[in-house]
Amino acid sequence: MTTAIDERIKSLYENEKLSVAEISSEEGFSPIAVKAKLMQVSSIYRKDCSNESLQNDELNFSDAELKEVNQIIMDTARAAETADGAIDWRTRLTAALYIRDDKKGRKEIKSVLQNNQFNILSLNEKLSEIGERTKKMKELVEV
User: What's residue 69's pLDDT?
Assistant: First the structure.
């Protein structure tokens, strides 16, 4: 269920073409809260984020490296053993669950946020509280 604030943020991004920083400044929300809400309500924002990550590909695996890593995970899921040669069910299960969750898209933050409802007002308030507490802690450390 989207709220009027959700629709406003979505409209500012999609229709008015405002950046996250501009929306954050105009609406008085943390940039993190705006990004989280846009990830949830705007397919255009999610698409823009995907395009950005494809362009900044220097930290990702090459296709050959990805195939190799996937094969290692699959081999672990099929044949993990303990030091004494017994089947290591815990490691096999962990690898198998990782493979399944990755295939289903559960490892992607956008799918986690997209399917999770949250109130941007409370998120923004919590982020402000964290900022204030961090500031107080830094002041205490400096004294």
Answer: 83
Tokens of 18: 């405002």
Q: Note whether 36 and 48 are same-domain residues.
A: yes
- Do 87 and 39 reside in the same domain of the chain? no
What is the Cα–Cα distance from 44 to 17, expressed in whole angstroms?
11
Note whether 5 and 54 are same-domain residues: yes
pLDDT digits (tens, 9 = 90+) for 123-132: 778 888 888 8
pLDDT (tens digit per residue) in 57-112 = 555 667 788 788 889 889 998 999 989 999 999 999 998 888 888 877 666 655 55
Distance CA 93, CA 96 (A): 5
CA nearest to 46, candidates 56, 36, 33, 55: 36
Residues 6+ apart with CB under 8 A from 52: none
